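Appendix B, Record 12. Input sequence as logged:
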Amino acid sequence: MSCTAEKFAFKISRLAEPSRNFNFLAVISLIDPRDDREKIVISNFAGGGVGSLIFVDVATGATEVISFPRDEGAWAVLLHEGRLIVGTCSTAGPGEGGAICALDLKTREWSEPLRRNDITYVWMLTLGSDGMVYGGTCPTGALIRCDPACTRMEDLGNPTGNLENKYCREVHGTVPGFILVTGGFATAFLSAYKIATGEWITLAEADGTHHFNIQEITGDCISVEHESELIRFDARTLQRLPGTGEKSPQGFRMAIQPRLTTRLRDGREAGVRGQEYFIGAVGGGDREFHALPVEPPVTAIRSLALDAGGNVWGSCGFGQTIFRYHPADGTFWNSQVVTERMGEAYGMVFVGGLLFMSCYAGGDHVVYDPAKPWDERGNINPRTLDSLFPQLQRPRAGSVLGPDGGIWTGWSAKYGCYGGGLSRIDPVSFKVTSWLNPVPGQQVMGISCDRQFLYFSTNSGGEGLPVRDEPGWFCIWHPVDGLVGKHPLAPGDAVGKLRAVGGFVLVMEGGGLQRFDGKAGKFTGKIELGAGAFNLVDLGDGKVAAMCGSTIKMVDYVEGVVEGSIELPGIATDAVVSPDGNILFASGTGLFELHRNGR
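Logged structural output:
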C-alpha cells in the first residue's frame, strides 16, 4: 500500500468478515448410494468464496458439505446415474464461472471442470433423449452439450442467432429428439434444437419484456406461459395448437426466480426459504422449518450504512441478508432473508431508527426496525412495503435521504426493457410513490441530494441488454416539481454514480469526475482520475475520496485536483465515513477501516 502525497498519513486495518450467509440456488432429493438414505441436496452460493452442495438427511437432519471445485455457486443441478452434474456460476464475470462438472455420489469426487471463459454462468441443465446433458448459458446465450461423465463440451450456438439475446435459460429434454429452450432479453423466444440435425426452430418470439416460461410438458402437449396466458404446442409436431388467451393457473412467474422445492418419496415436499430448509405437505401446508447445523460461509459485501450509534450495517453481494457490525467490540449479527423475492439490498438508509432498504430482484421497498424481533416470514419485521416489479427491478443507484425527508431510490427497468425510474418512501406513512422513465429509455445509475434538490445520472444500458451509443444525462429533480434541469453526458456506459458536496455535484464519467457548479448552473470542468470511480465519499472541507477499483484517490474538488492516492488490499465495493472521520470500506468479504491522518 502506498500514498503519493506525504500529508496523507494513514493506516488500513482489517476489522472483520461480518457477512455470513447461505444463498440457496437449487434443491433436489435423492437416495444417497453411500448409505441408501433419502437426502435433500441444496446448492449454496457463497459470494466472494467457493460454493457448496449441502446434503441433508431427511429423517435425522445430519448434514454433509461438499465444496465445488472452485466457483461461487451453481443454479444448475442434475441427478443422473449416480452423479450430480452441476453448471456453476460466478458474480465475477466471464472467465470466473460457467463450468460443468460431475460429482460421483459414491466416491464424492469431482470430475475435472469443463470451463468456458466467455460464460459467466450455466442456468439450467437437462438430459436429452440422446443421453447427453444440455445447458443454457449467459452472457453468450448459447446452448451447450456435454456427455454425462463431463469429459467434453460443445457449443451449439445461440438459439435465435441474435447475440444481443445474452440469456439462454430454461432447457427441457423431455420431448424426444428435441431440446426446448427459452431465453432473451433483446427479444424473448421459445426455440427447439433438433438433436439429429443441429437445426434451430423458433416456436415463438416476442419483444424482450415478457419471458416465455414452460409450465408443463406431456406426451401430447407443451404448455407455455407468456404474459400470464397459456400457449400450447403439439409435443410431436411442435405446431402451435388452436386457442389461446386462457389464463395460466400459475400466473406470471419471474423468469429469474429459481425453483426451490423438491418432492420426497413419501409425497411430502422439501425445500429452502431464506437461511432454512423445510419439509411439509405439498403447497405450503404444515411446513417444519429447520436451521442447517453448519456455519454459513463468509460472503462478499455489497452496501454499507451507519446507524445513529455508529454501528456498521451492510448487505451481501448477491445474497439475501444483511448484517450489523459493532465497532466497539468487533461482534456482528446476520439476518434471515430480507424479502420473499430474494432481497439483495442495494439501498440502505436509516431514518428515525428504522432501516429502509431497496432490493433486487423483486423491486421491493423494505423497512426494518432493529429494536424489534426479526419476523420476515410473516412480513412483520422487516416489512415489504411495496414492489415496483415488473416495471422496475434493480435499484442500481442505491438510496438517499432526500431534502424533503423521503427516501429516494434510482432504478433500472426490468430485464429486456430499456428504461428506469425513481421511487420515494414516506418514512412516516410508508407510502411508496414512483416515477417511470424520468429520462425515457435510460436507467438511473446514481442519486444524491443537497438541501433543495435531488440529482441523478443516467445511461443507455439495460438489464440483460447491450449498452447503446447514446448520451447519458445529469438531471436535477425537485421533490415537488419533478425534473427541473437536464444536461447531456458521455454516451454508452461511461456514466456512473454522483455525489452532491459543498455546492457542487460530482458526476462519475469515464476516467474522471465532471464537476457541476450549483450556483453557476453548469459544468465547470472535469477532474481526471486516470481510472473509473465506483463511489465517492464526502470527507468535508472540500475533499472527497473516489473509490477507483483497488485505489482511493483523494480529491480536492474545489481546486479540481487529485492530491494523492492510496492502494487498497482489493477492489472497494462501498464506503462510508465513520463518526470519527475515518473511512470504512468493503472489499470482497472484508470490512476495513482507513485511519486518516493518524486518527
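The mean pLDDT is 93.
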